[in-house]
Amino acid sequence: MNLEKNTPLERLYNGIVKENPTLVIVLGMCPTLAVTTSAMNGIGMGLSTTVVLALANLFISLLRNVIPDDIRIPSFIVIIASFVTMVDMLMQAYTPELYKSLGIYIPLIVVNCIIFGRAEAYAYKNKPLASFFDGIGMGLGFTASITVIGFVRELIGSGAVFGHTVGNLPDYSPTIFVMAPGAFMVLATLITIRAYIINRIEEKSGVRLAVTHTDEEGANCSACAFRDNCAGKFEKVEKMMAEKEKEKEGKA
Amino acid sequence: MSTTSLISILIMSMLINNVVLSQFLGICPFLGVSKKVETASGMGAAVIFVITLSSIICGIIYHFILHPLGLDYLNTIVFILVIAALVQFVEMFLKKAVPSLYKALGVYLPLITTNCAVLGAVLLNVQNEYNILEGIVNGLATSVGFALSIIILAGLREKMQYNRIPKAVQGFPFTMFTASLMAIAFCGFSGLK
């Protein structure tokens, strides 16, 4: 697909398909694993994150010439936390049931690294309209993938689709899928399937399609907003440790 | 408040409701910093330090300032700012005053600011209506639970480093499958209730 860069449509496509935050750049793992016990929870969490993401992106982009570089991280924190508090209070008032089942994970949207990542990587450098749609695109991508995970876990684990039980399926359902281990297992399986398909297509066509998780070991540091802070420091520590070991060997 | 209730909070937060394996907080460092046992234990120690300290400070702020003034709705904003400032401050303080501790923990501290386990532990203290002492015990137990699981995962990953794994499962999914098996093991602790 060839779209002009930084237009609203291109941003939506980028967030939902090309750089899907959950499946491609593997960010925001905590809510992804925690609230996906049912598809409805996934939609609720996804949409509230989308609202925060879009509004925070918009405001950070509007203020990007005012915020000094040195204190941008605390400024982001304040802006994001204010929107999260608003969403938290609105949900408590209008969707009390959903609020109860999502519980502590609503205030924890503050520390969702997708939001920080987009603020740092996109909104702080681009125009308000594009940033707003970038937030919506990323949010919808997040919503889509956690709804799928929630759907799979709900169907296998409690034999239901969006809260409606399917026949006598619940009698045969392994409850482990709605418990903690199931979350890790379903997400790992989904990412494996995606990587398998992409690897096969790449092998056949010889074209490199997309960034896959296999580029990184473990969590995806290259996409994180704080990589200059921590990943760089980690490399230093690992070098220091290697040097120490060499010294020890030299002495022995 | 009795000693038994403190002990039950300790066991609940450390093993039964393990912060990583059953509450899914702090997944990023759990997956990202668990390649080696040495770095994992450093991270674990730093998390214990920061969570315990922030539950003390946020507990005091909540019980003496926010709650009496009816400002409960500012919890999230105040706590995240306090934690971010605290981590910065601790880093500077350690660098100046206790260089040996800074050498051991320093590099891990910036990683912790946005670790949801810290904010999660503090918010849970408020949500469960713990007093300051119970909050500190809960914070300590949560962080020890974190250290426990990250060190176990690092040990497993060190053992499996040279295993032959299909290409599609390599890296992230493989670590997740390992974590899943660990979570099944930790489910066994719910029998302690």
Beginning-to-end CA distance, first to last residue of chain B: 19 Å
DSSP E strands of chain B, number: 0
> Roughly how much helix do the residues of chain A carry, as a percent range?
55-70%
Q: Name the helicity range of chain B.
A: over 70%
Task: Report the uncertain regions of chain A.
Answer: 211-234
Describe the fold and architecture:
Chain A is mostly helical and 252 residues long. Chain A contains 9 helices and 2 strands. In chain A, strands 1-2 form a two-stranded antiparallel sheet. In chain A, β1 and β2 form a beta hairpin. In chain A, α3 crosses α4. The radius of gyration of chain A is 21 Å and the shape is globular. About 10% of the residues of chain A have low confidence. Chain B is mostly helical. Chain B is globular. Chain B starts with a helix and ends in a 6-residue tail after the last helix. At the A-B interface, α2, α4, α8 and α9 of A face α2, α4, α7 and α9 of B.
How would you concisely characterize the structure shown here?
The complex is a heterodimer of chains A (252) and B (193). Chain A is built from 9 helices and 2 strands.
Give a topology summary.
The complex is a heterodimer of chains A (252) and B (193).
Chain A: H1 8-18, H2 29-34, H3 39-62, H4 72-94, H5 96-102, H6 113-123, H7 128-158, E1 160-161, E2 164-165, H8 180-205, H9 227-251
Antiparallel strand pairs in A: 1-2
Helix pairs in contact in A: 1-7, 3-4, 3-6, 3-7, 4-5, 4-6, 6-7, 7-8
Chain B: H1 3-16, H2 27-32, H3 37-66, H4 75-97, H5 99-105, H6 109-112, H7 116-127, H8 132-159, H9 172-187
Relevant terms:
heterodimer; A: 252 residues; mainly alpha; 2 strands; 2% strand; B: 193 residues
